[in-house]
Amino acid sequence: MRITVNGTPEEVTATTLAEALTALGRDGDTVATALNEEFVPAAARAATPIAPGDRIEIVAPRQGG
Amino acid sequence: MPDFYGTPVASRMMLGTAQYPSPATLEAAFRRSGAGIATVSVRREAAAGEGAPFWALVRDLGVRVMPNTAGCHTAREAVTTARMARELFGTDWIKLEVIGHADTLQPDPWGLVEAATILCAEGFRVFPYTTEDLVLAARLLDAGCEVLMPWGAPIGTGMGLANPYGLRALRAQFPDVPMVIDAGLGRPSHAAEAMEMGFDAILLNTAVARADDPPAMAEAFASAVKAGRLGYEAGAMEPRDMAAPSTPLIGRAFLS
């Protein structure tokens, strides 16, 4: 199915947010996630289903002021 | 030393981590500043693992980390960003930014209060980036904020304290609320002025990161903060319009 990851369209076969991160090669990273603009804690990713058209945000620590 | 949400901090200077010419320069600037708090952000990465070296560098600094919600324009965006930041950085401290105006980066008062209310209820220690507006300050305190971060001037301008009257009024209105001047400082003298006015700390980034010699500028700001604070604690004289001789007139030699 087609989803959007950090603003870019992606094709995945994953059914959960955790599986999507694995498919995207991000499961080993220090990241935080949001699904359709709502925060999803790391512990809840495996139980969070994803559906076509979903928007996933994956963020990491960066410089800031 | 100031106390933010029950946590004493050893330095009255907070420093941002953005815009430095190199990671080594960032590290050197922090070392020379003595800053005890570093602001950071959460961002999308172009490539997996891209942010790991930065995060490792910040952890090695041994300072407290304060993530921000920079770039958020709605309360909802800011709340989601804060929640992600809390998990990522393992801290409930959050510098709350809800931007309402694209050119000045002035906070959106309504969005700021809305987000602060939600985040304080969730146990966040909110440091709201705000204007010097007294009514907005009262609303933020009502929302549960125990610290305020009024701007000196718009972010990145280096203008210093654009509205000293407003800042003095804010300081006087809430004398027991820890306040940090955030944004707009460009020169060490601006920091000294803020500290002389009785503010508890300053937060800056661009003025150091974009200086010709960032580590030296970081030290200059640190010295100014110390001087300004000491001046505040020492109690400055009131200015007056007419001259007043500083040398006693009694005993003056009669020479004409």
UniProtKB/TrEMBL annotation, chain A:
Domain of life: Bacteria
Keywords: Plasmid
Keyword field contains Transmembrane helix: no
Pfam families the UniProt entry points to: ThiS
InterPro entries in alphabetical order: Beta-grasp_dom_sf (IPR012675), Mopterin_synth/thiamin_S_b (IPR016155), Thi_S (IPR010035), ThiS/MoaD-like (IPR003749)
Name under which the protein is recorded: Sulfur carrier protein ThiS
TrEMBL record, chain B:
Coiled-coil blocks: none
Molecular function terms, GO-annotated: thiazole synthase activity
Sequence ranges assigned to domain Thiazole synthase ThiG in this UniProt record: 5-248
Protein name: Thiazole synthase
EC main group: transferase
Positions of 1-deoxy-D-xylulose 5-phosphate binding: 156, 183-184, 205-206
Keyword RNA-binding: no
Record family assignment: Belongs to the ThiG family.
Catalytic reaction list: [ThiS sulfur-carrier protein]-C-terminal-Gly-aminoethanethioate + 2-iminoacetate + 1-deoxy-D-xylulose 5-phosphate = [ThiS sulfur-carrier protein]-C-terminal Gly-Gly + 2-[(2R,5Z)-2-carboxy-4-methylthiazol-5(2H)-ylidene]ethyl phosphate + 2 H2O + H(+)
GO CC aspect terms: cytoplasm
Source domain of life: Bacteria
Phylogenetic lineage: Bacteria, Pseudomonadati, Pseudomonadota, Alphaproteobacteria, Rhodobacterales
Record has Glycosyltransferase as a keyword: no
Location of this chain's protein in the cell: Cytoplasm
Source organism per UniProt: Falsirhodobacter algicola
Assembly information from the UniProt record: Homotetramer. Forms heterodimers with either ThiH or ThiS.
Pathway: Cofactor biosynthesis; thiamine diphosphate biosynthesis
